[in-house]
Amino acid sequence: MQIEHLEASLVRHEADVANGRLGREWVEPSGISDLMPCLTPESLTELWEVLNRKLDELTTRDAGDPRAAQVVLLTAGLPLAPRAPGAEPNTSAPAEADAENAS
Length: 103
Description:
mainly alpha; 3 helices
């Protein structure tokens, strides 16, 4: 369901920009990222904590600003176990992940 929500949000965002419902100032800070860092469980926990604190800070700061708009922010922290030698490649992960797991 989150993937469907992301797709619908992306389509809506692009239409909002194209039809002038969102100003050009939203184009540069908008985006989607697909990062695959190697982290320990403690580092992933810390990342979530930092992200949540910063999001709370920014939401509070922008609460009274008339320029503030609802932003869809989808995040995932999904550890991937190493594959056994000879296992089939994971077609749902980016190719870079396969190269990293091979080394």
